[in-house]
Structure formats: C-alpha cells, structure tokens
Amino acid sequence: MTAQILDGKATAAAIKSELSARVAALKARGVTPGLGTLLVGDDPGSRWYVNGKHKDCAEVGIASIQRELPATASQEDIEAVVRELNANPECTGYIVQLPLPKGIDTNRVLELMDPLKDADGLHPTSLGRLVLNEPGPLPCTPYGIVELLRHHGVEINGAHVVVLGRGITVGRSIGLLLTRKSENATVTLCHTGTRDLSGLLRQADIVVAAAGVPHLVKPEDVKPGAAVLDVGVSRDEQGKIVGDVHPGVAEVAAWISPNPGGVGPMTRAQLLVNVVEAAERAGSAG
Ligand SMILES: Nc1nc2c(c(=O)[nH]1)N[C@@H](CN(C=O)c1ccc(C(=O)N[C@@H](CCC(=O)O)C(=O)O)cc1)CN2
Q1: Of these residues, 7, 16, 56, 97, which one is catalytic?
Q2: Residues 6 or more apart in contact with residue 239 via CB below 8 angstroms
Q3: Cα dihedral angle (278, 106, 217, 247), rounded to 10 degrees?
Q4: Percentage helix, strand, coil, to 5, in the chain?
Q5: What is the pLDDT of residues 180-204, one digit of tens each?
Q6: 52-87, pLDDT tens digit by residue?
Q7: pTM, rounded to two decimals
Q8: Is 120 part of the annotated catalytic residue set?
C-alpha cells in the first residue's frame, strides 16, 4: 500500500480563497479584520512562522499589526505590549508567538489577553469554551488537523485516534476537539510516561504525532489503512525538517500528511479562519 497524501498546502489554499470573499464582505460593511502578532526574541523558526502569518493576511485582505521585543524583554515589557494590543482598535485579533523565552510566565501572558481578541484559541476562556462545547476560537493546529481529515473524506466519527504529545498547542487540546459530539472520536493521549506505546499505536485508526521526536512512529507501529498526521518539527544538521513519522509508514498507512506541506499550512489557514470569524461575530454584535 502507498498512502494517499493529506495535502495541507492545497487544502489551505482552498480555505484562503473562501476567506478572501468573506473578508471582502466584511470590508463592504465597514469592518476591517486586523491580525496582531507579538514575537519575542530572535528564534529564526518563530520569525518565519510570524512572517508567514502576515503574508497570509495580505493574501486574503486582513490588515497586519506587528510587534517585536528582544529576547531580553521582561515579563512587564511583554505584558505592556499585550495591554496595548488589547486596547488597539485596529487589532481585531492577535497571537503571542510561542514559545516565549525561558523565564517568562507564558500562562500569565495568555491570561492577560482580551479573550475576545484571542486568535489562537489558547486563552483559558477559549479552552474553557472548548471544554463546555460553546462557540469560540479553536486552537489552530488541532482545528487544522480536523479540517484536513474532513477535506479528504477521512472518517472521524467513531475512529480511535491516538495522539502522541501533551503540549497545549496540539496534544492536550486536540482530545477536547475530537471527542465533541460533532467529531465523535475516541481519543487516547500518549506521552513520555505511556507504557506500550507501540501497542496503542497499532490500535489507532488515526495517529496524530506531535511529540517532537524524529521518526518516533515506525512502520511496524501503524495499523494498515490508518491515517497518520505528522506534526513533529525537528531539524537535521542541514536545517531540514525531520518529522515524528518514519518515511516507511507511507507503505502501511492509507493516508499520510507530508511534513512540510501537511499540518503546518493548515495551522496558518485556521488562524485566518479564527480572525475572520471573530470579526464577523464583532460585526454582527455591533
Ligand atoms: N502562538 C502560537 N505559537 C505556536 C503555534 C501556534 O499555533 N500558535 N504553533 C507552532 C508554530 N506555528 C505557528 O505558529 C507554525 C508551524 C509550522 C508552520 C508551517 O507552515 N510549516 C511549514 C514548514 C516550515 C519550515 O520549513 O520550517 C510546513 O509544515 O509546510 C506554520 C505555523 C508553535 N508556536
């Protein structure tokens, strides 16, 4: 078997083209969505992601508000920018690029954000809404994974999904999303303390690998016919991405997301969806 590709680039392009029309409709009603970003430090990967977010905004007609602080910024410096973005009327939604430098209390920064401007779905209010099954912004990578599976017709209803990694941007939050009645999956969340990882993986209809461990998921860990999503980003000596999924898995799985070109572009597209939806909600409330 050679797996079919879960093409994140093409799916993201389709989402962006639909969003352009929605942004044009908002602008016709006098509402201009604006995405703010706060980048702290000089990590080249984070800078690349933030620049990509603004490039996407330009493509669909969303305004950009960019804020940057040096790696030496204090908790107070970061919180001052968060307060400014909360108050800035041109910024209808924003994100704080993660991870923040060591020594910064990330939860305190996220809690200080205006939940109505949370474009990432990572504010405690947004995560609480997800738990309560109330409408609100969804974390971009989990949301992107669900949309990528749906777009390719992969059955989520009733599927056993095994997730590797318990980080807040992917592992922990995707379980909340996939176990809603509307998705109706059964989720096993695995982490470094999990026993018999291989045995659990072999039971999965869908694998979401977000552990950040190069080639952790081997062909013998995967049930023939499963869908496998590779979220892991490690780098080799040349700086090339090495995912969590061994290339040989493509010979066993029915569906596989390339890395790059799979979940990453979907993360970016779903951020734009969150920004547009927030502007639509604000526009119809006001
Ligand atoms: N505030 C947030 N911080 C972080 C998030 C997040 O959702 N919100 N997720 C990741 C980084 N991320 C977005 O911020 C992100 C990761 C990857 C991609 C992407 O398109 N990757 C490309 C490959 C790029 C490369 O070569 O390096 C791909 O997969 O094709 C976009 C966004 C952590 N921080």
Answers
A1: 97
A2: none
A3: 70
A4: 45, 15, 40
A5: 999 999 999 999 999 999 999 999 9
A6: 999 999 999 999 999 999 999 999 999 999 999 999
A7: 0.97
A8: yes
